[in-house]
Amino acid sequence: MAFDPSAFSFSNTDLVVDPYPVYAEIRERDPIHNSRMYGGSWLLFSYEDAAALARDERLTNNRATLPIMALPEEQRGEFDEFVTFLRMWTGFSVGDEHTARRALLDEVFRVLSPTRIAGVVQDVVDHLIDGWDGRDKVDLVADFARPMPAMVLTRLLGAPEDDHEQLDRWSDDLVYLFGASALTVEDVRRGWAGGKALMAYLRELAADMARVPHRSLLGELLARRHDGFGFTEAEACAQCVMMMFAGVEPSRHLIGNAMMALHRFPEQRRLLMGNPRLWPAAVEEFLRFDPPVQYIGRLAAESFTFRGRDFEKGQPVLPFIGSANRDPKQFTDPDVLDIRRRPKHISFGHGVHRCIGTGVVRTQTAVALRTLLTRVPDVEVCADPTPTWNAYVGFHGLESITVSIPRVAPRSVLPRSH
Description:
Blueprint: H1 20-29, E1 32-35, E2 41-44, H2 47-54, E3 59-60, H3 73-76, H4 80-86, H5 95-111, H6 114-130, E4 137-139, H7 141-145, H8 147-157, H9 164-179, H10 185-211, H11 217-223, H12 233-247, H13 249-264, H14 266-274, H15 279-289, E5 298-300, E6 304-306, E7 309-311, E8 316-319, H16 321-324, H17 358-375, E9 380-381, E10 388-389, E11 398-400, E12 402-404
Parallel strand pairs: 2-8
Antiparallel strand pairs: 1-2, 3-5, 4-12, 5-8, 6-7, 9-12, 10-11
């Protein structure tokens, strides 16, 4: 039976295992799709349209109100403080404010260089794999892909690593608000409670760093200024919450999605392991083939017409990455994983509003997967139990995937550069 495009939503559980055939159907029948989500929104399913509107200046990145747009209007006033908190995120700022914030964040990440981040990732990944000694199976999500990014970011923040599980749970409640669309007032309350808990934790950490300066993500955000601009303590803490959102969830899903892709295309795994120079291209292909973040969020800053459709000011406009990256008009054999291609995917957006977690996600994915496949060369996805996926489509990823680990090699087998 053909899928009814009017039934498309981030919360449609019929789509979570494999949404791509449905994307293909909508691309053919209704590529500029008017959805009932968020009280009426536009979704762009073709690569050409998604790429064009991802960089269109008639759209704004100031989408802090998106999670509450699914609520009845009479419930939204409860969350004014929550919206104010989200508007502190650089990812939701616009214009000169965004330029100043982004420049300062870019300076911080020059200090926290890819080499330094890769070193932290390597140590965390090795620590997790070391713990598998004596086991013949593990849940690659619970025992690897889920804890790793949170452990890495906790270290980069300058927080005690043992706190990563609590920080991760608070972050999860926030992430859900952007991954699902059929949100209830209880969902938003839970997400805002997680945001407040993260902010309270980070402000206490910031107070400690004020007494003893610390070379960390939070420490650098507190200490640095760029062209006279600097973050307040609250703003610095809010950027760290944003980085948990931008760097933790995508990394964990991309690792699991990539492992499933290599399981489906074993010849690509053999090719990759025989030619390590393909790793950078492989990560880009994983991002194209099954991106963890399936859409780019925007709001219409003004009313305008696009390809005969009338977009109203304030409406959500959502270029759909997951569909665009499988568009056969842009990619040859788009449903085939090919680590030798050089895909011009749009998984991180375009231009000044490209995803802030880009570098962290790429580094974590490359180091984690290369280490896994080198230290556990015979790792294989198990048919039983069946892999399970998360319950919403805005973010696509696994909740559980059991893998066999016949042998685990010691750390010394690995090259130390990535």
